[in-house]
Amino acid sequence: MDDEVMVIGGGPGGLSCAAELGARGVSATVLERGDGPGAAWARRYDALRFNTSRRNSHLPGAPFPREWGQFPTRDHYVDYLRQYAEARRVRVRTGVDVGRLDPVDDMWRVTTSQGEATARHVVVATGLANRPVLPGWAHDPAFGGTVLHPDDYRNPAPFQGQDVVVVGAGSSGLELSHDLATGGAGRVSLAIRTPPNILFREVGGAPSDLPVPLFLHLPDWLVDRMLAALQRRVVGDLTAYGLPPAPEGAITGLKRRGAGTAVVDPEVIDSIREGLIRVVPAATGLDADGVVLAGGQRLRADVVLVATGYATGLEPLAGHLDVLDDRGMPWARSAEEALPGLRFVGYVYRPGLTGFVGRQARRVAREIAARGTATPPARDGWTPPASRRPTSRDRAGSPG
In this predicted model, what pLDDT tens digit does every residue of 357-370 receive, in sequence order? Predict the structure, then answer.
């Protein structure tokens, strides 16, 4: 399983890195823990559609078919990734779970569920949404119902007639509330802690993300104001329904914490106005019969769907290498080397991420191909680049 470049993750970032490397004559193998390219996408809920339009979401040199419409579905994207890998002859080894990376001499040792491998370069592209996250209270054994994460939800069929509390008001939380409320569930409640910015996928018949390339070159405060004005005009004031204006601007929240904006279709908000979805205060715990809300109110529930997001899950893989911050995100987020021979692709909060990773992949491939012979990975005494931010371990060892 040894190769010049090992790419970890068979999603858009990993596949595009391997494809771009192969186009430059560099041998690369993708290690994917699922059963094929795009396996993580295949596990998502049936009603999933892109939040960004096809124009801003495709990989380099591989536009989406026009007949798919402006916003590809989950199944569209899984087919797209698999056809992309096949057309570019990307070598993908499936069923391989990568556990740890270690520098050894002038190579990287990759410890996997199928044994050890070595490579001169390693590209990690397992994605921002790699490990489902549940709050501590969601594990309370006192609750007699079902607790699940959106990673385990497919469609509303198993929840017919059941009372469901959805926790979290991001895009997934709002969309799954609507999916349940219109798909036969009983009472559907949406528990929110922080009201989101709400944007529609389309405005006036055009994708609302078309100006995103311009927005990324404007000051954040200006884009926040523009999007807030758009929300007031198009979405309206939802305070009476339990959704007051968000406390933080859309772009500011996205860049700071990767959250804060829900991109949905108008019918999702219509279902809130029509009372099909009831917005309630934040969930703080569980009891035998349901959910405990902020302020002490209790809400009966058969099912609690906790849409509180994902983590990178990179700590077992690379936490010992001092390349991650306190949130488990790589310090090196622009596809530059985190350590000699080690790169991370796709770990940045921004709109149109699925398209952006393709541009990062081209940078990675150009730099690795231009180098020819890999530089050795980190050893004792290696001095990190001046741009590297201090980690928690650095701070602990500082005399100041």
Answer: 999 999 999 999 99
